[in-house]
Amino acid sequence: MSAATTVTTTDARIPLRAHLRHTGALVRRNLLWVRQNPESMFDAILMPIVFTLLFVYVFGGSIGQALGGGQDDYVQYVVPGMMAMMGMSMAMSVGTGFNQDFNTGVMDRFRSLPIGRGSVLFAKIAVELLRMLVATAIMLVVGVLVGFDITSWGGLLAAVALAALFATALMWVFLTLGVVLQNAQSVQAMGFLVLMPLQFGSSIFAPTESMPGWLQSFTDVNPLSSLADAARGLMVGGPVAHDLWVTVAWSVGITAVMAPIAIHKFRTKS
Amino acid sequence: MTRIDKNPDGASTAVSVRGLVKHYGETKALDGVDLSVREGTVMGVLGPNGAGKTTLVRILSTLLAPDAGQATVAGYDVVRQPRQLRRVIGLTGQYASVDEKLPGWENLYLIGRLLDLPRKEARARADELLERFSLTEAAKRPAGTYSGGMRRRLDLAASMIGRPVVLFLDEPTTGLDPRTRNEVWDEVKTMVGDGVTVLLTTQYMEEAEQLATELTVVDRGKVIAGGGIEELKAKVGGRTLRVRPADALQLRPLAGYLDELGITGLATTTVDTETGALLVPLLSDEQLTAVVGAIAARGITLSSITTELPSLDEVFLSLTGHRASAPQDAVPADTREEVAV
After folding, report:
1. Does position B7 have pLDDT exceeding 60, yes or no?
2. Between chains, do A115 and B93 touch, taking CB under 8 Å as contact?
3. From A30's CA, which of A260, B45, B273, B337 has a CA 20 to 30 Å away?
4. Which of A4, A10, A105 comes nearest B39 by C-beta?
């Protein structure tokens, strides 16, 4: 008997194992993209080198002085901050890449297959997290070369994990933008508009004490400040607990709100 | 509600559409469409751009939710049982939906894995389908480097991985050159030979005649005609025989002679003075034979003879009284006549 005569009244559920298998297959696809198109790794490789050197040599002297030392003190300050930045930049590229996918017919094919529609998004995030780890590793190597002192390997790993958790939350935001907005350019423009003030209006690159009061009230609630301060505490010592929990709370909160929205928008996109 | 309708001849209905409606703002992309495709047949959905063909396919393949009405594919409801439905369909979109950055083989392997084939089987299926669609040599090249026809074949191969019960082909040859188009037609015919039910959308009467057993003509979201291909062809006047006498002076006398004999189709013969040809409407092969016989009996030398299918425009003209091209609507009523002149 052909399947045309199969009659059922309820829709089938997709088992967890199948979800993992589908996500795995799609991760493989996204990794093959990188292999076919190695230039796509340029941002993950060059950005950490350029930014780390730029900040250390351009601002290192003067901000280091303000910190009560010199460039070496700034290196200790900015390297954990850069960790927060890597996640931000990778999160933005997840949105643009995803948007480009939609403008080909591939997404139609995926959406007409019996797979959980979250799998396409999970796979994208998994590969983007890998790119973020590559970028972070390169940034740390450059940091060490210009004098960063790793005081605690455990703390370093914890900081990387925290940055990855926060980056995942941001990726859901950018995936949503990637689905909703018309083209990759708008995703990028929107991304810059949001990211620039968030990055610079935080404690990533410079201590906030010398900023005007109104800006400080923003930097204080900016989750990137919490992430940078938590990473700093974990990597070079200092208070950690408060910023750590604030960052975790932000990450969980953003994910809880944005992940269902992203999946829903993906599911219903016409 | 997922009951399978039985046709008088006992065959199951593979696709059943009842009163399907889809709006985009003010525009009614689908305005109460009814359609039924018997298992193992090829349904051609013929219509101009903007008639709602793609919207119909997108609803049937669960990419779009209908606003009203009901549709089942292989017995599964498009709204309530999308996952089961997706398992039994194949989709080839208007634009080849393959991953251009991925090699051909990887495209097929990925789909196989997403359809829950074990690794080994997914590999074997990818090899098998590349072979069948003559793409083995290009297996390792990114699909982006393929020609239009190769890409379309890869797309067809991808829709066949899950051995679908119903295959949706949305304008499968739009944008292809005639030779490549024939290749794609051959592939589709092979698939049909394997027993797949096909719903095909097209803008070309010729494509519908090549592939479809039944036809539904849609315009502005509504079904305006439907039935067997032969039946419809009779309705729209069938083929046109184009003959060119070697001596142009023979044109008019020949036209008069053929009309007198009364052996041609519904319309009378017309003279195309520009090309020096006579257009004879035909309803059957018998009429074709009779006309050619009559010309030969009269001893008239012909320099060329061809038969033509009615164009979509002509089909529409005879079914609806207006041309298929949509822009007419954009012209205000008072200026329309001037434009038509």
Report:
1. no
2. no
3. A260
4. A4
- Residue pLDDT, tens place only, A119-167: 999 999 999 999 999 999 999 999 999 989 888 899 999 999 999 999 9
Give the Cα separation of B331 and B335 in Å (integer): 7
Query: Are A36 and B114 within 8 A, CB to CB?
Result: no
Cα–Cα distance measured from residue B43 to residue B52, given in angstroms and rounded to the nearest whole number: 15
Q: Looking at the predicted structure, is the pLDDT value of residue A253 above 50?
A: yes
Domain B13-233 CATH (choose: 3.80.30.20, 1.10.340.30, 3.40.50.300, 3.30.300.130)? 3.40.50.300
Quote the tokens at residue A98: 């995803």
Cβ pair B251, B241 in contact under 8 A: no
Contact A108 B110 (CB under 8 A): no
For B90-123, how does the pLDDT look when each residue is reduced to its tens digit (9 = 90+)? 998 776 688 888 999 999 999 999 999 999 999 9
- Asked, for residue A1, whether it belongs to a domain, the answer is no
Total tally of structural domains belonging to chain A: 1
Write down the CATH number for the domain with range B239-308.
3.30.70.100
Which of A8, A31, A33, A113 has the most B C-beta neighbours within 10 Å, making it the best mutation to test the interface with B? Answer: A113
Provide the shortest C-alpha distance from residue B299 to chain A (in Å): 57
| CB atoms A8 and B111 under 8 Å | no
Give the pLDDT confidence of A165-182 residue by residue, as tens digits: 999 999 999 999 888 887
- Residue B10 φ/ψ, nearest 5 degrees: 90, -10
**pLDDT for res B279:** 82
Per-domain residue ranges of chain B: 13-233, 239-308
Q: Is residue A130 part of a domain?
A: yes
pLDDT above 50 for A106: yes
Q: Is the pLDDT at A2 greater than 50, yes or no?
A: no
Determine contact: B154 vs chain A, CB below 8 A: no
A39 touches chain B (CB under 8 A): no
Do the Cβ atoms of B95 and A105 come within 8 Å?
A: yes
